[in-house]
Amino acid sequence: MRISYKKLFKLLIDRNMKQKELAEIAGISVATLTKMKQGKGAISTLVWEKICIALNCKIDDFLELIPIQK
């Protein structure tokens, strides 16, 4: 399985919120959000929790598990 954050960036568009705003509210770096957008590197569950709190949402509102096709 791989993780997709496309729902997160759609959610930001729907809420008219910039990545920089989310980073400031959630207390995470813009670099972390860039990593998420590019699908690179590991993102800790603490970051997920901070995003949930900042956006008042659930993890599955912004994270999607995608099966790896063989």
Features:
single chain; about 70 residues; about 10% strand; about 55% helix; mainly alpha; two-stranded antiparallel sheet
Please estimate the helix content.
40-55%
Characterize the largest beta sheet: strand count, sense, and whether it forms a barrel.
2 strands, antiparallel
Please tally the β strands and state the result: 2
H-E string: EHHHHE
What is the first-to-last residue Cα distance? Answer: 11 Å
> Low-confidence stretches at least 5 residues in length (pLDDT < 50)?
none
Measured on Cα atoms, how large is the radius of gyration?
12 Å
Global geometry: globular
Oligomer: single chain
Structural class: mainly alpha
Q: Give the rounded overall mean pLDDT.
A: 94
Strands side by side in the biggest sheet: 1-2
Beta-strand content bin: 5-15%
Determine the number of helices (DSSP H or I, runs of at least 4 residues): 4
Structural features, described:
This protein has 4 helices and 2 strands. It is mainly α and 70 residues long. The chain has a two-stranded antiparallel ribbon. The radius of gyration is 12 Å and the shape is globular. The model has no long low-confidence stretch (mean pLDDT 94).
